[in-house]
Amino acid sequence: MPQFSFEGLEPQVHPNAFVAPTATLIGDVVVEDGASVWYGAVLRADYSPVFVRRGANVQDGAVLHGPPGLHTEVGPGATVAHNCVVHGAILETECLIANGAVVLDGARVGERALVAAGSLVPASFVVPSAMLAAGSPVEIKRPVTGSPAEFWVNANPSAYAELATRHRAGVRWLRD
Fold it and tell me: Going residue by residue through the chain (176 aa), what tens digit of pLDDT does each one get?
């Protein structure tokens, strides 16, 4: 996997994490035990640190970065789905940022909350724990519990942990 030192800061990847061979990690990136960073994801920590906590997953094509003074954190068991942007924001435990969503500077997404696909969480906005947020900009819609979103919040952490184990063991580069 492409990993780059930047001004003396190097990515730190736990041996039990899965980082796809085409993911790119730059600078002050920390990927903890059991976390996964998938194909084509870019985690660029040149202005401020990027943390992917234990058991979190950052899926294909996601971009994580932050401005000076605001670190970016994907909390334990949280999901950043395909083609998302998380910029200087805090994602709490087991929240889910669905496909193509954007979460901006200083925003916070609470524990087990879900940001719907294609949504925009504006700077400094707080999505309360266990709530569904949707729209551009997001509005708080309803509790996750009892909604179709609950399935994804419950299923994603373990599904991606299992899939990461399979990829760690089974993916092989095919050369021409």
Answer: 689 999 999 999 999 999 999 999 999 999 999 999 999 999 999 999 999 999 999 999 999 999 999 999 999 999 999 999 999 999 999 999 999 999 999 999 999 999 999 999 999 999 999 999 999 999 999 999 999 999 999 999 999 999 999 999 988 888 76
Cis peptide before 137 (omega within 30 of 0): yes
For the chain, the domain total comes to 1
Query: Can you tell me the distance from the alpha carbon of 150 to that of 132, in angstroms, rounded to the nearest whole number?
Result: 9
Answer whether residue 175 is part of any domain: no
> Residue 127: which domain range?
3-170
Smallest CA-to-CA distance from 47 within 61, 64, 22, 35 is with: 64
**Cβ(93)–Cβ(73) below 8 Å:** no
73, two tokens: 């954190």
Instruction: Answer positive or negative: Cα dihedral of 19, 22, 23, 25.
Output: positive
